[in-house]
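Q: Hi! Curious about what CRISPR type III-associated protein domain-containing protein looks like structurally. Here's the sequence.
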Amino acid sequence: MSSDRLKNRNQRHIIERIIVKGTLVLNTPSCLGSGDVDGDTDLVLLRDSREDKALLMGSSIAGALRNYLREYQNGYSATEELLLFGCLRSDEEGEQSPLIVNDALSNENIKAELRDGVKINSVTRTAEPGAKYDLELLEAGTKFDLYFELLIDAENNKKQLVRELAIVLKGLEHGEISIGTKKRRGFGRTHVEEWQVWEFDMTNPNQRLQWLTLDRDWAESYTKSPNISKSIETALQVQLDAKDKRDRLTIEAKFILASPLLIRSGQASTDKAPDVVHLKSRRDEELKPILSGTALTGALRHRAEKIINTLTQGKKQLFTEQIVNEIFGFVKDKNQILESTNNEQKKKAKASRLTVEAL
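A: Let's find out. The predicted structure is below.
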């Protein structure tokens, strides 16, 4: 931000604060990666420096909520026009977000599971050399205590801010917002069990004191009771009538195995296990066999390639690659980027349009 902008900038006159707390529960394992390449796995969990608890960064939560709100209100690939999350990083003259999102620690020590993955060559149907990887995942059922604080100043449109906050928190409540990496492959599905909402009028001295002493054990006499509800609309006392502008197709189907299925797991549950065991993941405190989103997506991707190659008689490989990448996303290595001939081809990565849930 320029020095002239700082000199002439009006400080916010905060007249109200809305605090929202909720308990976030993982429905499926989540990969909250730390980016540390020196760990025991290729992607290790982000941990608190003082306790053996998982750390869910406030920036990660805010990013997921921001993207959800943009798509919900404007549709996919739309430009952003949001009041709740402030300006874009590229806007040096913009305003900061009025929403404070705190980091969250898991309520218990980390319970992790390991997951292996590999890239398959679509021609040879064998593993690509050096393309094996493993992830450290946080088990389903892990809980985090979330904390949000919305600042309302005299110039803000309170109605719009509260409405946008209700939209994103309702998305969390109903499990429409995933957290962590590989969200399009069934990881990081969540829901919120219960909401607590406090509203403080900062022009009222008593309520200012209540805000200052919130969560202080020695100040119980000043404590203000929250609105408690499983519905964020009820807790915030708003009624949402916004239309979801995401244009999407959802398919739900029930499949029956015609033959035995084996999705290989690199982690045996006991010393007496066979050399190869089927993949299992913990659900409701019990290990259950699953059909992973990554395995199912891999099968769908290879089938899509086969269909397009059949239709084009294998003569339009670039065309096949473009369609498959558009649907399933891609990550290119350095050599592929150097060989690209235009700006579109030089993109390093693109997220999948297709979301496949673990079963």
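A: A fun detail: The helical segments are 3-8, 58-74, 158-173, 205-212, 232-236, 293-311, 317-328, 334-338.
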